[in-house]
Amino acid sequence: MSKRGTQRTRGNLKPASSTKATATLLTHGISPFALFSGELPITNGIDEYGIDNDVDPELRVILRKLTKKDSTTKIRAFDELRDYCDANESDDKIRVILPLFVFHYRKWSTDSDQRVRDECQSTFDTIGMRMKKNLLPHLKTILPIWLMAQCDSYAPAASKAKFLYAKLFTGQNKQAEVVYFARNEIMSTLTDEINQCSDVLKDKKENEMETDDAHERRLTQVLLALGLFLNYFEANKRSDLTSQLKIIFDSGKFWKLDKIKSIQIQSSFYRCLYELINLIPDVIREYKTKIIPLVFYAINETEPKLCPLIWDCLIICLDTFDDCWLLVNHQKAFLPKLYAFLRNACHGNVFGVKDCLLPLIQKIPSTIIGEGTNNHFIENFFQAMEEGILSIKGRQQMNNVSSLLKAYMDCLLYVLENHSTGQLVFLNDRLLPLIRRLLTDKDCSIRNVYARQYFHFLNSIQSFRL
């Protein structure tokens, strides 16, 4: 029983004494206010943020700010960290930053806020140029994410990451040595990222969450980083990556990335695919049965960011693989898409594909393009181009008209010299309708550009003169 007039406690327990608690904390060298400030050391001299307690107090405050979630706090902390590095000439004070910076670099360089990513690369530039050779023990850890940072969708951040890489490792040979040194870690990271991000995004809905945006950005960076990695790699050593590359290609997830409803991912996929065909043709040839239909059946693409990339892949496929036409149904699938694309004036993507039209017909076999076939390719091809040229309207589109008309004349000249027996009849069938339209229709799109292209065409004819 408690005494009359005293404060009762539950269970008649003895109240805690703040004086005794303070004495206990001081005995262990801990300030009682540390409990409220978040500065309580955990164990072995490391606090809850993973920062050594022996670190300069000013630096410790900055590093703790960098671990916060708030973007504004992190941006200010990056600025303070750069000022701290500039103010301290001793590399020993900067060296203690490296482990924590490397540990958090992945999170900072893939942050959802592009300002944080930009500040991260600016700070990495400052630290990297001070540390230089001291980065070597951390290189295998940081390089995979560093390559991804060089492919950031935010151009300032990407350029800073690339610039630091070029400054630290001058010359192609040195850059190739670095990626070869960390090749296993790079391939492992890229493979994991492709698998994880594709799993998250494969069932992506129209109303996506912010996490989906983050995975979309990461997957875009990974695909571009794979191409960049192969470009850095020495050509005669790329075969060392064969087994690791096949892990990506054999999983099946890679070949479904173009189906994800994201222009950003699809464009990075076709950029990556172009680099793969260009840089490792012997490895990628094993997967041509997947590549060729995927590319050839996509040529009627309307999206300006995708269309030129698909056509570039189409041409490099034709240059690399000899049996492309055996792997597609050209009559029912490819040619109808090609004609539709041309009739619609390349869907406004003339500048992106104008230089691909001549290489395309140069690679079409005589079994398809020949006059004796049932495909009527020559007639359908040029008729579709003529419809596309004449469909372009407006003064602002004159450059498109001129470019497409030049491509038309180049293709006409090639067919005239290689696949036409009745040359005069062929020229009459193709040129006279355009001239007639030019003379009778005052609103004709080719009215102001036809004469120049026509005379250029006549001067190019080798076998005869009209």
Automatic annotation (TrEMBL):
Gene3D superfamilies: Leucine-rich Repeat Variant
Key words, A-Z: Metal-binding, Transferase, Ubl conjugation pathway, Zinc, Zinc-finger
This protein's GO CC annotations: cytosol; RQC complex
Superkingdom assignment: Eukaryota
Pathway(s): Protein modification; protein ubiquitination
Xref: SUPFAM superfamilies: ARM repeat (SSF48371)
UniProt catalytic activity: S-ubiquitinyl-[E2 ubiquitin-conjugating enzyme]-L-cysteine + [acceptor protein]-L-lysine = [E2 ubiquitin-conjugating enzyme]-L-cysteine + N(6)-ubiquitinyl-[acceptor protein]-L-lysine
Primary role: E3 ubiquitin-protein ligase. Component of the ribosome quality control complex (RQC), a ribosome-associated complex that mediates ubiquitination and extraction of incompletely synthesized nascent chains for proteasomal degradation.
Protein name: E3 ubiquitin-protein ligase listerin
Gene source species: Rotaria magnacalcarata
